[in-house]
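RECORD CONTENTS
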Amino acid sequence: MTVLDGSPPIAAGLSDGNAPAAMTLTQHLTELRRRLIVCVLALTAMTIAGWFLYNHVLSFMITPYRDFLHHHPQKDISGGNLVTTGPLEGFTTRLTISAYLGVVLAAPVCLWQFWRFVMPGLHKSERRYAGPFIGSAVTLFALGVTTAVIVFPKAIAWMITVSGNGIVPLFSPSKYLGQYALCCVIFGAAFTYPVILVFLQLVGVLSSAKLRAWRRYAIVVIVAVAAVITPSNDPFSFTAMAVPLLVLYEGSILVGRLLHK
């Protein structure tokens, strides 16, 4: 609850135990700045950690490319290695992958800070969902990343094969690793959207009845969004994105109904 008319806000410690404490606009902005600073620090720390984990991650990420070339030696002209096309490409690629790792590793901290920011505006009965909210978001993000890791070998094989017999792959690290990392982040972020739907149902902005009524439109929107945000635009990635999102939409309706009951 925000106080804008100059009247004295209720002190947090004196407010009703089941009602959100009042805060002034200045207090809201101060709290938001503090939460953002924590998120930035977490992202910075995790990006630095990602810099030192880069070689291990590189070995893992290049495996689908090498496996394809192992089974199709006629297309292997690089010995299974990625090829830089400029003196700075290796360095900038390492920075990019480190940043992606920072986003993934700092996601739990950022989600927690988001929850702590909105929590004062919620009733006491709504605050008990903090643990499930963070746990569900992290689990769904991890599920999205795992799905991307599973489907990427099929995606890269399809993209190389569909190019034709007269074309052989010679990938640069920035393009290949950037595509892989972007795929993981997009899948992870997309899979967390049911948490937002359930949250909006809890605070009364949406209802499970509205979500059921919007089901046909939601199917069209989800399929369209999956087609747009899938980085590689291959059929495997598209299917792996659209089908789980449709299932998660139905799951968010079910969870919302159960929580209200």
Summary: Confidence is low (pLDDT under 50) at residues 1-16. The chain has one domain: 2-260. The chain is about 70% helix and 0% strand. The longest strand covers residues 2-3.
